[in-house]
């Protein structure tokens, strides 16, 4: 069956990671739609230019990696765009939809220590296998390279003495900063390392009990025009309902906890035992919102499950509703905890950082 005959133009960012993600989706498209003609349209976004890096925060920063691609879709210069879901704001622009969630890499963050053989790892005799022993390798006040409050706050909950140091740029640039000794450790998305063939740089994969990943981390999302029936039909062949359900739950959690631009938020949903969707969430709010004059964070982590029977799979809207409710109810529970002061308190870091 050929659902489309016209050539499809795929907008993508030009970074090595973005191109790898786009290649993966194009390959799936070619398998699902035999004979389809695909043209890749590489673009540079504001995020790549680093426009948001010089102090831009919140709304300005959200969407910096996807905006140009979306405008290309709206203006008809491209027919689909491949994104890392975690870069896609929860409110989509008018007239655009996420037509497929074709794959998800391992969503966990990883801790990257300097290459094996460096002195501290040898002193322990073996490579660490969990977050706590990996962090034990780092001396007091070690510099943790991350620009993400979500990562900085969660790792400082394990090791409050660590100092979060902003590290900008693409994955390769950040690894170079580590290798040059500008920081003592990095936290990155494991998915990015895997897709770049750099998984061997991951010292420890961080489970959600240590660091809850960003909503959508590791998931690829394909965006298209809502009224482009041909493309939507083609994308439907790539869509995986269980990834869509997870995406809905994580993004509902993110939207409910304040759009994720002001506060550290993490959310990871997945199918367990075949018929339940489990969501782990993390949120921290400035402690001053709970007790006036208190500097630092009030944090909470928790999880919830909802039955998502296979039988309902054909009825995607019911799945989506259940997934959204899961995200919203866990968000409400955790927000209630931090606002009532029942969360875990974390003092502000050195130099006013996270
Ligand atoms: N913040 C940029 C970004 N957007 C998506 C990924 C990783 C790949 C993914 O999550 O799918 C990264 C790099 C990182 O956070 O380390």
Automatic annotation (TrEMBL):
The keyword Transferase applies. Keywords: Porphyrin biosynthesis, Transferase. The modification S-(dipyrrolylmethanemethyl)cysteine is found at residue 261. Binds 1 dipyrromethane group covalently. It catalyses: 4 porphobilinogen + H2O = hydroxymethylbilane + 4 NH4(+). Residues 8-232 form the Porphobilinogen deaminase N-terminal domain. Its EC number is 2.5.1.61. Residues 247-290 form the Porphobilinogen deaminase C-terminal domain. GO terms for molecular function: hydroxymethylbilane synthase activity. Its cofactor is dipyrromethane. Coiled coil: none annotated. Gene3D superfamilies: Periplasmic binding protein-like II, Porphobilinogen deaminase, C-terminal domain. It comes from the Bacteria. Belongs to the HMBS family. Tetrapolymerization of the monopyrrole PBG into the hydroxymethylbilane pre-uroporphyrinogen in several discrete steps. Monomer. The porphobilinogen subunits are added to the dipyrromethane group. This is Porphobilinogen deaminase. It comes from Geochorda subterranea.
């Amino acid at each position: 069956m050929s659902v489309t005959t016209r050539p499809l133009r795929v907008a993508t960012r030009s970074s090595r990671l973005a191109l790898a993600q786009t290649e993966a989706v194009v390959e799936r498209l070619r398998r699902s739609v035999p004979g389809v003609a695909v043209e890749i349209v590489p673009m540079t976004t504001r995020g790549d230019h680093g426009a948001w890096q010089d102090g831009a925060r919140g709304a300005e920063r959200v969407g910096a990696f996807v905006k140009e691609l979306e405008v290309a879709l709206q203006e008809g210069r491209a027919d689909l765009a491949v994104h890392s879901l975690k870069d896609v704001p929860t409110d989509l622009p008018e007239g655009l939809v996420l037509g497929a969630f074709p794959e998800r890499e391992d969503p966990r963050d990883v801790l990257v220590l300097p290459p094996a053989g460096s002195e501290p790892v040898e002193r322990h005799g073996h490579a660490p296998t969990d977050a706590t022993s990996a962090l034990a390798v780092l001396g007091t006040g070690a510099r943790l390279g991350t620009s993400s409050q979500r990562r900085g706050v969660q790792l400082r909950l394990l090791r409050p003495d660590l100092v979060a140091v902003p590290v900008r740029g693409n994955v390769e640039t950040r690894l170079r900063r580590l290798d040059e000794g500008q920081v003592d450790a990095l936290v990155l998305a494991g998915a990015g390392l895997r897709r770049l063939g750099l998984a061997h740089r991951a010292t420890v994969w961080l489970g959600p009990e240590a660091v809850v990943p960003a909503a959508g981390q590791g998931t690829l999302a394909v965006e298209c025009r809502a009224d482009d029936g041909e493309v939507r039909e083609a994308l439907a062949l790539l869509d995986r309902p269980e990834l869509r359900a997870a995406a809905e739950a994580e993004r509902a959690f993110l939207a409910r906890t304040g759009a994720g631009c002001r506060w550290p938020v993490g959310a990871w949903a997945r199918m367990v035992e075949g018929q339940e969707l489990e969501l782990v969430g993390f949120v921290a709010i400035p402690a001053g919102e709970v007790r006036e004059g208190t500097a630092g964070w009030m944090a909470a982590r928790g999880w919830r499950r909802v039955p998502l029977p296979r039988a309902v799979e054909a009825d995607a809207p019911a799945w989506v509703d259940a997934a959204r409710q899961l995200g919203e109810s866990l968000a409400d529970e955790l927000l209630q905890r931090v606002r009532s002061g029942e969360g875990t308190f974390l003092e502000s870091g050195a130099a006013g950082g996270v």
